[in-house]
Design goal:
The protein is mainly alpha-helical. The protein is 57% helix and 9% strand. It has six helices and four strands; from the N terminus they run H-E-E-E-E-H-H-H-H-H.
């Protein structure tokens, strides 16, 4: 049962990754959230950069807007995303929206696994309280979104078991 789930899950994730439009050509912090931002001389400084790499331009946007540590309203998330779109003159809005949604969902699935591992292996149980936020963000981005139908169907099988 577990092996079948894993095979289906990997196939679905690979298919979602194939639907990403933008190439990996942007500096990506990968841990870009409010806790890693500080004000220094009236400018925003970023700390904790050891996981940075070249990746998709939507990754840090998804990290910041869909941060599991801080709950924000759907309206706030929408306004932040729209602000980003307005600041990017030469961006395909459909492509960046697509990439943002896929990356947010995949990132939050990864976060659930990381937080579970931290709780079990490192006895850092405080991370467990953030997992429901990650599930809520996954649902926010995937619910009623046809590109996530297979993923939602698969995840529904574990909710009912």
């Amino acid at each position: 049962q577990r092996l079948i789930f894993k095979k289906k899950f990997v196939k679905i994730v690979k298919n979602l990754i194939k639907k990403i439009h933008y190439k990996n050509v942007t500096f990506v912090h990968r841990d870009f959230h409010v806790s890693n931002l500080m004000m220094v001389k009236n400018k925003i400084a970023v700390i904790d950069t050891q996981d940075a790499l070249i990746g998709n331009r939507a990754y840090d946007l998804a990290s910041l807007i869909d941060d599991v540590r801080i709950k924000t309203s759907k309206n706030t998330k929408k306004k932040l995303f729209e602000y980003y779109l307005k600041s990017q003159k030469k961006i395909n809005k459909l492509h960046i929206t697509n990439d943002f949604e896929i990356i947010s969902v995949l990132r939050n699935l990864k976060i659930i696994g990381i937080f579970k591992r931290l709780a079990i292996r490192d006895k850092k149980r405080e991370y467990l309280k953030l997992i429901p936020n990650a599930w809520n963000l996954i649902e926010l981005r995937s619910k009623n979104n046809n590109k996530f139908k297979n993923l939602n169907d698969l995840l529904d099988t574990i909710k009912t078991n």
